[in-house]
Amino acid sequence: MTPTAATGSQVITDALIDINVIRETQTPTPSQFNTGIRKLNEMMAEWELDGGSLGYTPIGTPTDILSVPDGAVKAIKLHLAIALCVPFGATASIELVGEASKSMDVINRLRAKDVQANLGELPLPANITGWPGRSILTG
Description:
Largest sheet: none
Number of domains: 1
Oligomer: single chain
Shape: globular
CATH architecture: Orthogonal Bundle
Structural class: mainly alpha
CATH class: Mainly Alpha
């Protein structure tokens, strides 16, 4: 899947708008961007450890492009918004939490594709057996 062209700036700005820290006509301050980048990288590192890769490369500046599949961007924005509530003293709405929860289905499907792709690359030994006389491949 081709990586999306979403930048850190777009994701962080949308997340801050979603939790009413800034308005749609505003741009985050450098401090807000720094916090957003730190929280984004932390969140993505946790997701990486939690099960399956999205191909995310940590970003360092707001202009860096997120290296994730297109379908992952919405979920990342929504979950980042929730992660930014504490440092910005904001509250996540019930609607935001619900949308974030639903969006994890997309992330889990993308992770499953990554796991399936990786399993497809594993060479299988010529004689795989489970119980005596039974192959785990053929039963």
